[in-house]
Amino acid sequence: MQNAECRMQNEDKDLRQRTKMDARRVIRLYSALPKSTVAQVLGKQLLRSGTSVGANYREANRARSKAEFLAKLGDCLKEAAESEYWIELLGDEAVVPAKRLAPLLDETGQLIAIFVTILKKGRGNE
Questions:
Q1: How many domains does the chain have?
Q2: Residue 34: CB partners within 8 Å, gap ≥ 6?
Q3: What's the pTM?
Q4: Which residues form the domain of 55?
């Protein structure tokens, strides 16, 4: 039991760092966007949702119950999926070259997959 608990703490720490690094990449992307209206509107949406993922993940880990944990993790998933949408739009509208967005889009997709897996296991829907 101790090994499993230690592994979960390490995974939590890793995911905590990953979501923070993802937010930092979003911040840097937003800072480098052109000042056009389209770029700024799409960028602000991404900035809001992209930085919310890590904040919600931290809140989830301070949950007082399993239900609260799963609800907050659901918020992480929602914000990550929304971020994926804004990243795609930035590329589709040629605001940012797709090549520059690819790593961010990939990491966002991985985070979505991780949150889906955790939620399914937590709800017993494996």
A1: 1
A2: 95
A3: 0.87
A4: 2-123
